[in-house]
Specification:
The chain is an alpha+beta fold and about 450 residues long. It contains 16 helices and 8 strands. The model has no long low-confidence stretch (mean pLDDT about 85).
Length: about 450
């Protein structure tokens, strides 16, 4: 594969195989990004950018230099470079939208990136309008010597350089938001890669493949580290959140997924009966083993229904149905989660109980407006839920005897007619002036 286009006599007989390989690597990276996370808008934009980088190498060098391509067609090949630049800037925009800005002004950064995309469009227009000038005074200009004296060089380098500066500026502004580590690694990798990828257009074919390869490697290293860290975070989060929430956290960031908001949701609170005496009578390692089984049983039910474990507190577990992911039928789902927790935990406590020390399970369910969000300081954060429904579910859990699922009236009203909830006498609850009307989910019955 050797160059023989008369427009580029300096490359006559040059082996261009390495450029075909670089293009193949870029296309492979695009495929890897889209396969790894095809549902993510950021990954799709990134895949388009690297796909068109590969296409531009194939068309502009492998085809453009090797074959006697008409000069006007070489100009049209410049559109692929513009598309790659536009997609890269779009990737930066979409990444910025996944990182909370707090009180920072984001409009300026977004406008800068849009200006960079407009500059890339200008480059495409110039490439089509002035193909001869682009071929002779811009492509490989540094290899030809004295590029600064050629007006055509500056005509084409200006929009590309402006687009690159806009991308770098947008990413530096993004870093000012203090994104989490995976995103920070990926952004820094792109900052390192852009000068090499842009510079490969003007260094000449003797070094362009090497320069482009360095740029691709810079970003590939960061991208691999990003996906490794995301995978580790996903594994960690999936132990506590539903798969739907873990996916949301992975794609949009923990802070975005857990922004403070007022939600209508259902709270399920459960804890073990007889646990204090049981813990005193058994070794700490045995107690921890029982708690792990208990947590796993509750966690499996929670994940099945798209709910979220707000926290574990000894033998108590607090579950949110309707946050961070909203659920229209949160009351029905909450009662069903409570029923299945009772069934699942009964098997755990049956295996762990002895004649001297028996364990049981009690559950409380309440619905209402709850404010959810992240609180904390000094780098330690917690997802919290504040509202009467949280306190009421906890109180009902304390009142529930072994095997009981106590449900407040507001939850019962939102369940489907015919739900197996039998009325119970109203009981006084701390913090409430009037006795609270209760229902008990019949043993073995479904909430539907």
């Amino acid at each position: 594969m050797t160059g023989n286009n008369p427009l580029f006599p300096e490359y006559l007989g040059m082996d261009l195989t390495q450029y075909a390989l670089v293009a193949l690597v870029s296309l492979g990276m695009a495929l890897a990004f889209i396969v790894a996370d095809r549902q993510s808008g950021t990954s799709r934009a990134l895949a388009v950018a690297f796909a068109f980088i590969g296409i531009s190498i194939d068309l502009g060098i492998v085809v453009g230099v090797q074959y006697a391509v008409p000069v006007w067609l070489l100009g049209w090949f410049g559109i692929t470079e513009a598309i790659a630049t536009i997609a890269l800037l779009e990737w930066v925009l979409r990444v910025r939208r996944t990182v909370p800005a707090g009180a920072l002004n984001t409009r300026t950064g977004d406008l800068v990136l849009r200006a960079g995309q407009a500059s890339a469009v200008l480059y495409a227009v110039l490439s089509v309008a002035l193909p001869q000038l682009r071929a002779q005074q811009f492509l490989g200009a540094l290899a030809a010597g004295e590029p600064l004296s050629k007006p055509g060089f500056w005509l084409f380098v200006a929009p590309i350089a402006f687009s690159c500066l806009c991308a770098l500026g947008g990413m530096l502004l993004l870093l000012n938001r203090r994104p989490d580590r995976p995103e920070r690694v990926r952004v820094l990798a792109m900052i390192a890669a852009i000068p090499f990828m842009a510079g490969s257009m003007i260094v000449g074919l003797d070094y362009a493949a090497l320069v482009m390869t360095i740029g691709l490697i810079c970003f590939l290293v960061g991208a691999v580290e990003y996906h490794v860290l995301q995978g580790q975070r996903g594994q960690f989060m999936s132990r506590f959140l539903s798969p739907q929430v873990a996916e949301l956290v992975s794609k949009r960031g923990l802070a975005h997924a857990m922004q403070e908001s007022l939600r209508q949701l259902t709270v399920v609170c459960c804890d073990l009966r007889g646990f204090t005496a049981y813990a005193q009578a058994h070794s700490s390692s045995h107690v921890l083993s029982v708690l792990r089984e208990y947590y796993d049983a509750v966690g499996a039910v929670v994940a099945e229904h798209g709910a979220t474990i707000k926290d574990f507190a000894g033998d108590g577990v607090l579950v949110l149905v309707g946050a961070p992911l909203a659920q229209q039928d949160h009351a029905r789902v909450g009662v069903e989660v409570a029923r299945k927790i009772r069934v699942a935990v009964r098997e755990v406590v049956r295996r762990a109980s002895s004649e001297q020390h028996r364990l049981g399970i009690g559950v409380g369910v309440a619905s209402g407006p709850v404010t959810v969000g992240v609180i904390g300081s000094s780098g330690r954060f917690e997802y919290t839920a504040v509202g009467p429904a949280v306190n009421l579910a906890s109180r009902l859990c304390e009142l529930a005897r072994d095997g009981e699922v106590l449900v407040v009236a507001s939850t019962r009203e939102q369940c489907e007619p015919g739900a197996a909830l039998e009325p119970r006498a109203a009981v006084p609850v701390k913090g409430y002036a009037e006795p609270v009307a209760l229902f008990n989910l019949q043993d073995g019955a479904s909430a539907a």
